[in-house]
Amino acid sequence: MLILGLNMFHADASAAVVQDGKVLFAIAEERLNRVKHYAGFPALAVKACLDYVGAKISDVDHVAVGQDSDANLAKKVQYALVNPTKVLNFIRVQQRKQAMRNVRKLLANALDADPAGLKFQQHHVEHHLAHIASAYYCSPWENAAGFSYDGSGDFVSTMAAHCEGKQIEVLDRVFLPDSLGSFYTMICEFIGYKQYGDEGKVMGLAPYGKDGFCEELRKVVATSNGAFRLDQSYFQPLGSNQGMQVREDGTVALARHYSRRMVERFGSPREPHMEITRREMDLAFAMQQRFEEIFFCLLKQLHEKIPMHDLAMAGGCALNSVANGKLFDQTPFRRTWIQPAAGDEGLAIGAAMYVCHALLQQERNYVMRDAHLGPEFSEARIEADLKKAGVRYRRLGRERLLELVADKIADGAVVGWFQGRMEWGPRALGNRSILAHPGRADMKDILNARIKHREWFRPFAPSILAERQHEYFEHDHPSPFMLHVYKIRPEKRQQLCAVNHVDNTGRLQTVSREENALYYDLICAFERKTGIPVVLNTSFNENEPIVCAPEEAIDCFKRTRMHVLAIGPFMAEKSAA
Ligand SMILES: [Fe+2]
Fold first, then answer.
1. pTM for the full model?
2. What is the CA(159)–ligand 1 centre distance, in A?
3. 530 CA to middle of ligand 1, Å?
4. Degrees, nearest 5: CA angle 61-65-67
5. Which of 242, 346, 425, 474 could pair with 487 in a Cys bridge, judged by C-beta atoms 3.0 to 4.6 Å apart?
6. CA of 544 to the centre of ligand 1 (A)
C-alpha cells in the first residue's frame, strides 16, 4: 500500500512516501526549488518521492494532507465573530483553503497526469495530530505521551495526546490566539529578527542576557489554573493564520506581531542592522525563560494524565533544543523521541503515518532510526558535476578518504562533507555538513568569516561518538537528531572550545555506527589524531537551503573560502586557501 503525505500551501511544503508502513523517502520542497521555507505546492518533492519508489501517481492508494480546514471550525467562527476586523480575512483564508482541497487536480497538473486515472483516496489530518503522529509512529514505543506545539495550525497552538498501539487520543488543545510559538515570534520580531524561522537564532542569544524582564514577560504570557494566556494588548490582532502569509511566489511573510504596548513598555524595537544591546539580550533571556516555564508546566500536566516515562514530540517549538535538554530535570519524563523534522515539513510524514495506522489500521513495523530519507547521487553523477565545474579532484578509497579528511580537520581546515542520502529536517547530521575542529578557539570566527556569516552569538554544534557522550556532557539521553542542548563537563570545555556556548552548553548530535557508519568512522579517525571524539558540524550551505545535489555542494565550495570538499569518494582542495 502506497501513501503519499503532503504539507502544501504552508511554510516548509514537503512530501513523503510511505509504503507498507515504512517511510521510504521524504523531502522539503525548498531543497529542490532552492526557495527557503517554500510554502506553495511541493510538486518537485512529490516527483522525487515517486521516482524513488519507482511509482506513478496513478499507483498511489492514499494521499494524506497535514491540514484540515474543517478542524476546529466552530472555534474559528467564534473567533472571527468577536474580531470583526478579521472576518473578511477569515473568509478569504477559508476560500483559499477550499481551493487547495482539490488535491487530485493539483497532483494531476503537477505530474501531467489524467485526473481520471488517479485512484487514491484523499485524507486531511488535523495539523497537530499530524505533528504528534510524525513523532509517535516513527518512535519505537507502543505507549507514550504525545505533545505538539508551534505558532498555529488549524487554529490550534498546542496539543496533548495519549498514544497507544495504533491510536492517538487527543486529550487537550490550546486554541488561538493563545500560542507559545506566537509569543516567541513576537519577541524575536521586536528585537530585530523578523524572518520566518529566525526563532532558532535568538535562542542562541538568550544566555547572554540576565533576568531583567522575566517578571514583565510573565504578564505577557500569564498562567492560571494550569492554562496559559497571552495578554493580547502586547500583540497585533493576528487572525487565524497568526500573522503568517504566503506570497504569490510561495515565500513566507510575517506580519508584525508586536503592538504599540510593547513599544510603550520596552522602547523602540530594534531594526535588523542595529547593534544588539543589553536590552535585546535580556529580552531574549526572559523570552526563553518564560517559554520554558510554560512548556514544563504543560508537560507536568500531561504527565499527570499519562504517567509514563516516554514523550513523543513535534511541532516547530519542539526545535527548542535548550528546553528539550532541560525537560529531563524539570518534568517526570525520562525519554523523548522528537521528530527530526519537528517543524511543518514533518507534517507530510505525520499525515501519511496517521492514515496508515490510525485510519487504515495497518500494523506498525517501522522505527525512524536515522534521518537519511532524502536523495543520494551516484559516483558517476558526482564526478560529472566535478568535471563540469572545472574542479580538480582525486578519487580515494574509503579508509584513505577518512584518514585524509580527518588530517585536514585536525590541521584546522574547513571541510565540506557530502555523502549518501540527504538528511530529512532542518539539521545537517553528517551527510550534508561542513566539518571543522571543535577545539580551536578561532574556529567560530574562521567559519563565520569564510562561509557562514552568522550572527556572532550563535554557537556551532558538536557531533560526538554516542558512547562517549557521558564523558563530555552532563546528560546521558541520546540526541541523534541534534535536538537537545546539555552542559559540557568543566574538564572538557577547553577541548571543545569552538562548540562550547557562553553558558557552557552544546547542542550535540550523538553519532552511532548503526545510524551512520561513514560519519562515525570519520570521527573515530579524527579522535586517533587529536584525542577528541568530536567534530564541529554545521549545515552545508551559505545563506540558502542546505545543499541537496552535488552541483550545489560544488558551487558552495567554489564560491566560499571552504578549504576542502569531500564528496562521495572524491576529494577537492583549494590550493591557496
Ligand atoms: Fe506546525
1. 0.95
2. 11
3. 42
4. 155
5. 474
6. 22
